[in-house]
């Protein structure tokens, strides 16, 4: 167990270091950062001033270690565009993105788990086919377009839900639904295949032989075993959802981290872009790490291998 | 079950084939120039709606450009992005995956780590940042997506190679004195192609959706090119009064991606590779 833990932690740490380097290298892609910041209508003197002001005249290696050193303690510097510290900017907006992600995951699980179970119990029957067709349709849905269609339908024509902003819980219903759409097919398929495997296992036959009720067999025995891969994929999907929130937050004008990222990319505000890339990568790594740990606790077989 | 599944395969193949034909023969399908603006004929609705004009079947956009012409030229962009991205990411992913699965040991550890690190990087955010820094063009979008979307190819190629590596016919090739490159190219690759074909459809669908999302956010294919995502972005300001401006490109995008997914699903069943992909 301890060895598994140590190995997994080491990988997570290495991933963080890799992403740190990647996030730094990313902003140096254009060649000269000072020219990108200054914009197309700047003179050579402007560029020189910017280069000095942001410390871009120093050797790249020095800039890198300086950035990494500060990032380690949560200091991502000053935003070029917003007159604030990057850490504060992100801190202010993170709650909205996390709320959105959790609402999305909640909706996705509420829809995907029952559908997956029904699909598994009726394997090969018409209802199973209909459900897998719906999953395929959901997978093909462009999220930003679905957001706009929902806005027209529920916001404009029916007037049930607010179109943009973050004031009340109703504001999160449409964006949460759109975000959930992207996760439902994967969650549903995994629940289905997990349940199909579980239902044909020996312990289910034993439970049946003992004369347990069908509901008890499905809920207490099969579902519990099918849940483990679903926990892992739910963590992965939450990570993807936080990354995907950039599109949905822009569509619904939710001022979360995704919207901030889009704004800073279009304003050439690189310290903020770097920080958001790093933050999302670390959240994803922690989520998958947590899911692996949880699975190891739940399933002793994993620890052994 | 079988009959229904292969129906899906045929419907998918039909949608993809149809879009491909539309993309290839785009200039013959429309009498209008997709870039020609005519400001006196802005936002004419499609022919079946009130106010529709017979010379513009799908109406015109906010700059008076023929919507059908833009739609069929947009199919070119989507198909081009889909195919080119799959080729690029397939080359990267399959090389990495086969190397990891074939050599095992340390090499495999490193490749697994590269896959893990890639998965942790937020896809859309990084793609947006790259396009913004390097400048938006069709080539940049293809290169960016190709360099980011290879991980599923790598995962599947790796597992499939591990399964094939120890089979009898590979052992036979070894003992016949075949070289390592020969075994990889002639014995292993041909035998892992079917799961990879399924991955290719998944990645093509994903690449098309991502290109549309990037263009929608203003950092994908640059205007005035008629990308479907860009058409939705440009129509967004008018959608509350003329919903069709976002419905026409949106439904096309949805149908194409659904068709590709159906094709992939049908292939998976046909090739019986369900567990791997």
Sequence-ordered SSE layout with sheet pairings:
The complex is a heterodimer of chains A (305) and B (277).
Chain A: H1 2-27, H2 33-38, H3 44-53, H4 60-72, H5 86-121, H6 126-140, H7 143-157, H8 173-199, H9 202-209, H10 214-252, H11 257-266, H12 270-298, H13 300-304
Helix pairs in contact in A: 1-12, 5-6, 5-8, 5-10, 5-12, 6-8, 7-8, 7-10, 8-10, 9-10, 10-11, 10-12, 11-12
Chain B: H1 2-24, H2 26-29, H3 67-103, H4 105-120, H5 123-134, H6 138-148, H7 151-165, H8 168-175, H9 180-188, H10 193-216, H11 228-235, H12 244-271
Helix pairs in contact in B: 1-3, 1-12, 3-4, 3-6, 3-7, 3-10, 5-6, 7-10, 8-9, 10-11, 10-12, 11-12
Describe this structure in words.
The complex is a heterodimer of chains A (305) and B (277). With 305 residues, chain A is mostly helical. Chain A has a domain at 95-271: Orthogonal Bundle (MetI-like fold). Chain A is 78% helix and 0% strand. Chain A has 13 helices and no strands. Chain A has helices at residues 2-27, 33-38, 44-53, 60-72, 86-121, 126-140, 143-157, 173-199, 202-209, 214-252, 257-266, 270-298, 300-304. Chain A is globular, with a radius of gyration of 24 Å. Chain B is an all-alpha fold and 277 residues long. Chain B has one domain: MetI-like (MetI-like fold, Orthogonal Bundle), CATH 1.10.3720. Helices cover 70% and strands 0% of the residues of chain B. Chain B is built from twelve helices and no strands. The radius of gyration of chain B is 22 Å and the shape is elongated. Chain B starts with a helix and ends in a 6-residue tail after the last helix. At the A-B interface, helix 1, helix 6, helix 7, helix 10 and helix 11 of A face helix 4, helix 5, helix 10 and helix 12 of B.
> How big is the Rg of chain B?
22 Å
How many separate helices of chain B? 12
Distance between the termini of chain A: 10 Å
What is the name of the CATH superfamily of the domain at 95-271 in chain A? MetI-like
Q: What percentage of amino acids of chain A are in beta strands?
A: under 5%
E-strand count of chain B: 0
Structural class given helices, strands, pairing of chain A? mainly alpha
Structural class by SSE content of chain B: mainly alpha
Helix-strand sequence of chain A: HHHHHHHHHHHHH
Instruction: Note the quaternary state here.
Output: heterodimer
Distance between the termini of chain B: 20 Å
């Amino acid at each position: 167990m301890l060895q598994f833990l140590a190995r997994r932690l080491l990988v997570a740490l290495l991933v963080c270091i890799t992403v740190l380097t990647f996030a730094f290298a990313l902003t140096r892609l254009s060649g000269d950062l000072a020219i990108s910041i200054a914009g197309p209508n700047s003179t050579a003197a402007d560029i020189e001033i910017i280069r000095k002001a942001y410390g871009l005249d120093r050797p790249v290696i020095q800039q890198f270690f300086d950035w990494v050193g500060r990032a380690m303690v949560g200091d991502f510097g000053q935003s070029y565009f917003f007159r604030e510290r990057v850490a504060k900017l992100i801190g202010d907006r993170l709650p909205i993105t996390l709320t959105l992600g959790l609402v999305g995951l909640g909706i996705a699980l509420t829809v995907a788990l029952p559908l997956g179970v029904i699909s598994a119990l009726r394997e090969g029957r018409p209802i199973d086919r209909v459900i897998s067709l719906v999953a395929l349709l959901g997978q093909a849905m462009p999220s930003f377009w679905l957001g706009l269609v929902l806005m027209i339908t529920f916001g404009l024509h029916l007037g049930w839900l607010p179109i943009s902003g973050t004031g009340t819980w109703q504001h999160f219903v449409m964006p949460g639904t759109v975000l959930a759409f992207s996760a439902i097919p994967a969650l549903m398929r995994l629940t289905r295949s997990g349940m199909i495997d579980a239902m044909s296992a020996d312990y289910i036959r034993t439970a049946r032989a003992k004369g347990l009720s069908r509901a008890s067999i499905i809920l207490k025995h099969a579902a519990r075993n099918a849940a483990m891969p679903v926990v892992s994929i739910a963590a992965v999907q939450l990570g993807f959802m936080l990354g995907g929130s950039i599109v949905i937050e822009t569509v619904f004008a939710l001022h979360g981290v995704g919207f901030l990222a889009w704004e800073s990319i279009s304003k050439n505000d690189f310290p903020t872009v770097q920080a958001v890339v790093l933050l999302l990568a670390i959240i994803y790594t922690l989520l998958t790490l947590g899911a692996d740990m949880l699975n190891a606790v739940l399933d002793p077989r994993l620890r052994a291998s | 079950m079988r009959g229904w599944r292969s129906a899906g395969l045929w419907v998918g193949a039909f949608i993809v084939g149809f879009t491909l034909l539309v993309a290839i023969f785009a200039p013959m399908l429309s009498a209008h120039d997709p870039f020609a603006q005519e400001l006196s004929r802005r936002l004419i609705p499609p022919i079946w709606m009130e106010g529709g004009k017979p010379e513009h079947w799908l109406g015109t956009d906010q700059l008076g450009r023929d919507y059908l012409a833009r739609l069929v030229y947009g199919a070119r962009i989507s198909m081009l992005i889909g195919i080119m991205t799959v080729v690029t990411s397939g080359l990267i992913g399959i090389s990495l995956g086969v190397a990891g699965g074939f050599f095992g040991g340390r090499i495999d550890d490193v490749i697994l780590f590269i896959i893990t690190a890639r998965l942790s990087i937020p896809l859309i955010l990084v793609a947006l940042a790259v396009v913004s820094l390097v400048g938006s063009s069709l080539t940049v979008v293809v290169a960016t997506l190709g360099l980011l979307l290879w991980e599923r190819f790598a995962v599947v190629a790796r597992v499939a190679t591990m399964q094939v590596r120890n089979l009898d016919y590979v052992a036979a090739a070894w003992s016949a004195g075949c070289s390592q490159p020969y075994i990889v190219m002639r014995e292993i690759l041909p035998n892992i192609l079917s799961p990879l074909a399924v991955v290719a459809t998944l990645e093509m669908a994903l690449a098309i959706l991502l290109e549309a999302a990037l263009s929608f956010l203003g950092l994908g294919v640059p205007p005035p090119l008629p990308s479907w995502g860009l058409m939705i972005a440009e129509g967004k300001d008018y959608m509350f009064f003329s919903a069709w401006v976002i419905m026409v490109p949106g439904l096309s995008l949805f149908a194409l991606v659904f068709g590709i997914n159906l094709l992939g699903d049908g292939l998976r069943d046909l090739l019986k590779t369900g567990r791997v992909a």
